[in-house]
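Narrative of accomplishments. A recurring question from our advisory board has been how the design workflow behaves on a single, concrete structure rather than in aggregate. To address it, we present the structure tokens for one chain from the evaluation set, followed by the sequence designed for it. No filtering or post-editing was applied between the two.
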């Protein structure tokens, strides 16, 4: 077997972006990973550098700064979180990075975060597009509660999407067709399977058709792209597909060298 990982590309960030209803953020939410590198673009904003210079650690750090800012993580905590990932930025630097991001995209605060706060104040609950709700009947209306709300909406959206359109139907597909492939892990915004040459194309195609679906978030439509990876070791990313292969032959040309090296 080889590992096949199906990862929802920038899933939570895309949901946040569409919920701002901002034209530029909507464009970013609907961009394809093989056409536009959003992490480099955002890194160029927070680090005030040309996109061509945002590589390696700065690209990854920029990704984490933007993700944390969407949920209003404060600079001190952001600095600590980045340090755990090996990025050394002071609290003051994180505050500047965050300020640049919010100045460039004010709708993150003025629309997305504001709307979450108003729902919590008025209704004491949040409800996602699947109809699932979380209630806060007794909590104080203060920043820690609001931050929970900022995170809950995209996290619950992606968790439900991955379960209802990814994990459950894929597991049923494998059992229904008596396949050897098996789901090994569901981690955050991805599912990981072990699969073999005879089944990988059918399994991958099923996941694409089931999971890559257009949903509506407050009137904004979004289908989150899926990135695939074939690996001999989990998370090795030895054969990465930013887009779904155009044919079985294209897939197998990447699969078989890994498979043959695995069984030698």
């Amino acid at each position: 077997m080889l590992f096949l990982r199906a990862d929802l590309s920038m899933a939570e960030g895309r949901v946040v972006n569409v919920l701002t209803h901002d034209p530029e953020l909507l464009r970013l939410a609907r961009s394809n990973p093989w056409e536009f590198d959003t992490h480099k673009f955002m890194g160029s904003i927070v680090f005030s550098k040309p996109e061509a210079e945002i590589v390696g650690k700065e690209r990854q750090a920029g990704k984490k700064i933007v993700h944390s800012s969407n949920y209003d993580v404060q600079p001190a905590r952001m600095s600590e979180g980045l340090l755990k990932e090996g990025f050394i930025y002071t609290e003051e630097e994180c505050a500047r990075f965050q300020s640049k991001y919010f100045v460039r995209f004010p709708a993150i605060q003025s629309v997305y975060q504001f709307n979450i706060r108003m729902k919590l104040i008025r209704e004491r609950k949040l409800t996602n597009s699947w109809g699932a709700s979380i209630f806060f009947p007794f909590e104080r209306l203060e920043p820690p509660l609001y931050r929970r709300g900022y995170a809950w909406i995209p996290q619950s959206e992606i968790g439900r999407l991955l379960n209802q359109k990814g994990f459950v139907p894929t597991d049923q597909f494998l059992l229904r067709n008596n396949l050897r492939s098996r789901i090994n892990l569901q981690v955050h915004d991805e599912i990981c399977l072990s699969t073999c040459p005879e089944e990988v194309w059918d399994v991958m195609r099923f996941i694409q058709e089931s999971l890559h679906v257009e949903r509506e978030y407050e009137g904004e439509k979004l289908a989150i792209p899926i990135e695939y990876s074939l690996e001999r070791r989990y998370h090795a990313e030895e054969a990465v597909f930013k887009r779904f292969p155009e044919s079985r032959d294209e897939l197998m040309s990447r699969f078989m060298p890994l498979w043959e090296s695995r069984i030698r």
